[in-house]
Specification:
3 helices; 7 strands; alpha+beta; single chain; OB fold (Dihydrolipoamide Acetyltransferase, E2P); 154 residues
Length: 154
């Protein structure tokens, strides 16, 4: 007869094995590639059946390529990574930050027609942190302000 410790270890191994199997299969089913246009073109050249796989493409909108259908819910534009570009069609409401030259992430599938059919469009915010104009990198120009002096005394 086996001891209680052995039964506990066998039971724990079964639970962990089952949990690991479920995690691995769910990642396989819901996982998605994140590629650049160049990487996508390479994958499509190597494996033409890759068109059936859902992918996310991170790229920049080609300036002047955005066209919008009059009803306002269908967009066509080109994306590029500097080396390769693809036409994209998106049906839906575009984010406010979606403009020429903005970095985007589009999610969808590459069609047989060579057009990427996006189901999701995310536009990155164009803002970034920078020094104030004429300011020194250490923030020296702010040390003379009342707010800085008041905080330094506290």
């Amino acid at each position: 007869m086996t001891s209680a410790r052995t039964k506990f270890l066998i039971g724990g191994a079964l639970v962990l094995g089952t949990a690991g199997y479920l995690m691995a299969t769910s990642i396989k089913d819901t996982g998605m590639y994140y590629l650049t246009p160049t990487e996508l073109a390479t994958k499509l050249t190597v494996d033409p059946t890759f068109r059936n796989a859902g992918v996310k493409i991170g790229a920049r909108v080609v300036p002047g390529s955005i066209t919008r259908v009059p009803d306002g819910k269908k967009y066509a534009f080109n994306v590029t990574d500097g080396a390769k570009s693809f036409p994209v069609v998106y049906r839906g409401i575009a984010p406010d930050t979606f403009t020429d030259g903005v970095d985007v992430v589009v999610e969808g599938r590459m069609g047989e027609d060579g057009i990427f059919h996006a189901t999701t469009l995310l536009a990155k915010c164009a803002s970034r942190y920078e020094n104030a104009p004429g300011g020194a990198p250490g923030g020296e120009q702010y040390k003379q302000t009342p707010g800085y002096k008041g905080g330094a005394r506290a």
